[in-house]
């Protein structure tokens, strides 16, 4: 039976239809005026939803029929470097050809460049399915954020040069940020950008390391443009194309995601162009790029979790022990049920997050193009930015940790066979492990989110969810989530009142986890209100999640500083 990763997972379509993209699409389509210039543009929201549905169906079919069957061979073959030239696995090359033929390599780009002009939310649904099919392929398909960054910040001439080629698949992209001595601390970037006045040209010199798809034809590079600076204010963003001076020194031999080359690069007087304004490379452009990357890796993690969970369920149905399928054993079905609830909650969180990212991007674009942006528009853009800034790191932290735990449980369900390469369980486990490390570790996501948690940025949204017309079981569950929400607010006040920076840092993880649990609880309740069949999974998620929230609240409320006080003694044992 043909597989389609969109049709066999109705939860994706449920989110598409219920996340509330009306305003997002209307603004993106300029009040549906684009239909007058582009025949393929929608004439109203129903038309747009129909278009999204058809494209997702097509991508789902490609994922199920073509990409997934090649994934094991891609993992086995990996990428190769010979005399500075990187070659993808045969299956990866075929996958990229299939996606290019489907014209989904410029999903979010404007139509004048050959793009689809789809919102981030719909593109993220595609990346989830691609990741389920082959986690490593998302690191190539998901790099469309590079083209989107060029679209947001580059000159008209730069857009005209690069964007049409991204849409056709003629060029691919890489973001060259990390260096041997500058990992998470990008302010320490040392790759030098030198301006030659005679040639009126910038040149790049230095090293970059751990660059995903570093063999790409187009690179966005963070470089030090201001002589004598040592912090982020001396960094600018540049775009350059692959040429003789850009050398791939090596590709990393990695635990997982073998289909995606991770490269060490040497820049030897590589000609480049400045993107946007000098000195804003880190503070403006990379921050935008990293926010997009957080969403992309969240989708990658969700797709991997979905693939892993399905693998475990299939095995549990087929494997018999003591005269019955192991799915019948409580120890097994408990893992599968719990993970299913967490995956559905994570999907609701992801597409709730991307909706706010879409709203923020629309407002930012409107402010940029308005001759004189109104105070109301500026205020809206500021509010959307705060909400998205909290949601994106919370989302990445939750989903990447989920991918790892779901993959772990799937191997456990397989027993010894899960440790062998005969089943894809071990590949999902290896592939999942990087997701809570790159594009900012889980610990750094908590650092990024804690400001919004302390300021209670999401409280008005949660209050709206609390007031929805729940009845019966949903009302009782909503009351439990309301009480949990109250505990989060009280915990924030306790941490704030202590005025102890080390205690604040130590409790940040607990506060972020509590905030995520409450938000996911409300999102699940809202989903169950729209579809009564979701009541059981909503109950399971809330009953599983609240005890951990209570434990975190108790640790905060008792001012638990034992770890701070005893860490040296414990580490010395």
- Distance from first to last alpha carbon: 58 Å
Low-confidence stretches: none
Q: Please, what is the average pLDDT?
A: 95
Radius of gyration: 24 Å
Number of strands: 11
The biggest sheet amounts to: 7 strands, mixed
Number of helices: 18
Q: Give the amount of beta strand, in percent.
A: 5-15%
**Helices and strands, in N-to-C order?**
HHHEEHHHHHEEEEEEEHEEHHHHHHHHH
**What is the helix fraction of residues, given as a range?**
55-70%
Shape: globular
Could you explain how this protein is built, in words?
- With about 575 residues, the protein is α+β, with helices and mostly antiparallel strands.
- It has 18 helices and eleven strands.
- The chain has helices at about 10-20, 20-30, 45-75, 90-100, 120-135, 140, 145-155, 155-170, 280-320, 330-370, 375-415, 425-430, 440-455, 460-465, 470-500, 500-530, 535-555, 560-570, and strands at about 80, 85, 175, 190-195, 200-210, 220-225, 235-240, 245-250, 260-275, 320, 325.
- Strands 3, 4, 5, 6, 7, 8 and 9 form a seven-stranded mixed sheet that branches. A two-stranded antiparallel sheet has the order 1-2. A two-stranded antiparallel ribbon has the order 10-11.
- Helix 10 (about 330-370) packs antiparallel against helix 11.
- It is globular and about 75 Å long.
- It starts with 9 loop residues before the first helix and ends with a helix.
- The mean pLDDT is about 95.
């Amino acid at each position: 039976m043909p597989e389609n990763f969109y049709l066999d997972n109705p939860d994706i379509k449920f989110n598409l239809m219920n996340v509330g993209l009306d305003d997002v699409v209307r603004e993106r389509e300029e009040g549906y005026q684009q239909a007058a210039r582009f025949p393929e543009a929608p004439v109203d929201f129903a038309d747009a939803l129909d278009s999204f549905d058809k494209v997702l169906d097509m991508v789902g079919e490609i994922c199920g029929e073509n990409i997934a069957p090649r994934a094991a061979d891609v993992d086995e073959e990996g990428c190769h470097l010979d005399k500075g030239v990187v070659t993808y696995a045969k299956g990866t090359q075929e996958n990229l050809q299939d996606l290019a033929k489907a014209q989904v390599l410029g999903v979010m780009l404007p139509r004048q460049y050959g793009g689809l002009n789809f919102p981030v939310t719909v593109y993220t649904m595609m990346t989830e399915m691609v990741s389920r099919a082959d986690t490593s392929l998302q690191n190539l398909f998901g790099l469309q954020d590079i083209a989107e960054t060029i679209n947001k910040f580059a000159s008209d001439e730069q857009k005209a040069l690069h964007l049409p080629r991204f849409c056709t698949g003629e060029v691919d992209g890489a973001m060259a940020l990390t260096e041997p001595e500058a990992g998470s601390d990008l302010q320490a970037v040392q790759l030098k950008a030198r301006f030659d006045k005679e040639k009126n040209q910038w040149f790049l010199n230095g090293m970059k390391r751990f660059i995903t798809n570093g063999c790409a034809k187009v690179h966005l590079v963070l470089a030090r443009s201001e002589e004598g600076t040592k912090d982020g204010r001396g960094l600018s963003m540049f775009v350059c194309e692959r040429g003789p001076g850009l050398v791939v020194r090596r590709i990393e031999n990695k635990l997982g995601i073998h289909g995606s080359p991770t490269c060490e690069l040497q820049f030897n007087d590589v000609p480049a162009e400045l993107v946007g304004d000098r000195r804003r490379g880190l503070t403006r452009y990379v921050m935008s790029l990293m926010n997009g990357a957080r969403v992309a890796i969240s989708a990658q993690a969700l797709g991997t979790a979905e693939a892993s969970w399905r693998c475990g369920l299939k095995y549990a149905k087929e494997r018999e022990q003591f005269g019955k399928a192991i799915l019948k054993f409580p120890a097994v079905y408990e893992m599968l049920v719990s993970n299913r609830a967490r995956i559905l909650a994570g999907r609701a969180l992801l597409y709730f997050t991307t909706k706010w990212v879409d709203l923020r991007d629309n407002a930012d674009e409107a402010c940029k193009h308005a001759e004189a942006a109104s105070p109301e528009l500026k205020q809206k853009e500021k509010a959307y930015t705060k909400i998205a800034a909290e949601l994106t790191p919370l989302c990445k932290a939750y989903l990447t940790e989920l991918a790892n735990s779901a993959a772990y449980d799937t191997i456990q369900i397989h027993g010894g066979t899960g440790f062998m390469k005969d089943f894809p369980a071990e590949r999902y486990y290896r592939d999942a492990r990087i997701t809570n490390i790159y594009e900012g570790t889980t610990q750094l996501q908590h650092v990024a989110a804690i400001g919004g948690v302390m300021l209670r940025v999401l409280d008005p949204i949660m209050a709206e969810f609390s007031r929805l017309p729940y009845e019966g079981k949903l009302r009782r569950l909503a009351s439990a989530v309301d009480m949990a929400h109250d505990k989060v607010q009280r915990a924030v006040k306790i941490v704030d009142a202590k005025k102890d920076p080390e205690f604040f840092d130590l409790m940040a993880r607990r506060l972020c986890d509590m905030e995520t649990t409450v938000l996911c609880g409300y999102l699940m309740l809202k989903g169950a209100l729209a579809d009564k069949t979701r009541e059981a999974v909503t109950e399971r998620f809330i009953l599983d999640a609240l005890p951990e929230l209570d434990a975190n609240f108790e640790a905060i409320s008792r001012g638990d500083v034992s770890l701070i006080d005893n860490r040296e003694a414990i580490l010395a044992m």
